[in-house]
């Protein structure tokens, strides 16, 4: 089921997806931003700050901001680009889904699009179409399919990320598997290139890293909640891991002082090698997140078993 509603608290337009098994998702047209994803028991799986500001030009703190045409400070534009604080529209006539879309009759989805108006063209002079299909799968998994199309008469280059804020019980009880031994750029050390050691990543201080050449599946294991998130991705070779920890949390106006304990950003991204599109070309990417009880998870990263088993 797909429903269009006005958010009572913010007056903003949003879309509700409800999958027959009971899972739900909410997508705000502001930012093309997934702000809620609940499993069939009604448990929220995305973090959304209690202080999130739903008012332009602020980006919404939590959920899944879309970073385009620039990730972070990797360029001359505002941090994370402008797509996350612009109004998207529902696309009445979406392009046919790519073969990996996995759409089906009972899978609710919505197609959104962002095209530049004069404002955007002034700061980034390129005609583009940015499409996002958000979809709930049979097991409540949340999928975003992204397409960027160059509708200009000259090439353009961009970086991109789906800045997913996962809800976790306690950041000290969480570990990430799948990024061991990879190289990363450390944002806390002026983007110095370092190599991750052999162990799964755990957290006891601020982390802000861009892992490069990452696998198509990454797992976030929440020991306390006995829940594992499995993030599968295509077309997004990098993975950003971010937790602001205590000091930075206190400095952010739209973030509660202690909220860093209950969130972890795992961001499927294309940053290290920016994407260039010639006129008429299209770029596609896909992210699917599922949440499974950790007892299904062997401790070895074999999310094929988790997803298909
Ligand atoms: O506060 P913003 O603009 O939403 O960014 C949050 C964080 O987003 C992460 O992706 C960046 O790596 C961090 O450096 C940044 O602090």
TrEMBL record:
Q: Which Pfam families match?
A: Aldose_epim
Binding of substrate, residues = 61, 79, 84
EC class name: isomerase
Which is an annotated GO molecular function term of this record? glucose-6-phosphate 1-epimerase activity
CC annotations in GO: cytoplasm
Q: Which InterPro entries match?
A: Aldose_1/G6P_1-epimerase (IPR008183), G6P_1-epimerase (IPR025532), Gal_mutarotase_sf_dom (IPR011013), GH-type_carb-bd (IPR014718)
Q: Which CDD domains match?
A: D-hex-6-P-epi_like
> Which processes are annotated in GO (biological process)?
carbohydrate metabolic process
Q: To which protein family does this belong?
A: Belongs to the glucose-6-phosphate 1-epimerase family.
Kindly provide the name given to this protein in its UniProt entry: glucose-6-phosphate 1-epimerase
Organism of derivation: Physcomitrium patens
């Amino acid at each position: 089921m797909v429903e269009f509603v006005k958010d009572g608290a913010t007056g903003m337009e949003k879309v509700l997806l409800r999958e027959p098994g009971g899972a739900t998702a909410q997508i705000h047209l502001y930012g093309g931003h997934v702000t809620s994803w609940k499993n069939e028991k009604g448990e929220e799986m995305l973090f959304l700050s209690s202080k999130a500001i739903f008012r332009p030009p602020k980006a919404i703190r939590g959920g899944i901001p879309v970073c385009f045409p620039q990730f972070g400070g990797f360029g001359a534009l505002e941090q994370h680009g402008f797509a996350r604080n612009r109004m998207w529209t529902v696309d009445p006539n979406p392009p046919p889904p790519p073969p990996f879309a996995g759409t089906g009759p009972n899978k609710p989805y919505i197609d959104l699009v962002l095209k530049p108006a004069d404002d955007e063209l002034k700061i980034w002079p390129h005609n583009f179409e940015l499409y996002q299909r958000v979809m709930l799968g049979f097991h409540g998994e949340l999928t975003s399919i992204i397409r960027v199309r160059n509708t200009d008469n000259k090439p353009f280059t961009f970086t991109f990320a789906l800045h997913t804020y996962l809800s976790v019980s306690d950041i000290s009880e969480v570990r990430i598997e799948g990024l061991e031994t990879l190289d990363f750029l450390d944002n806390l050390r002026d983007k110095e290139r370092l190599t991750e050691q052999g162990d799964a990543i755990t957290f006891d201080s601020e982390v802000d890293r861009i892992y490069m050449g990452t696998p198509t599946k990454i797992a976030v294991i929440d020991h306390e909640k006995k829940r594992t998130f499995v993030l599968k991705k295509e077309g997004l070779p990098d993975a950003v891991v971010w937790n602001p920890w205590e000091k930075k949390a206190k400095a952010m106006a739209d973030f509660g002082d202690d909220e860093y304990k209950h969130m972890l950003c795992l961001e499927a991204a294309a940053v290290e090698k920016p994407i260039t599109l010639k006129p008429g070309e299209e770029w596609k990417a896909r992210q699917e997140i599922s949440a499974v009880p950790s007892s299904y998870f062997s401790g070895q990263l074999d999310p094929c078993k988790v997803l298909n088993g």
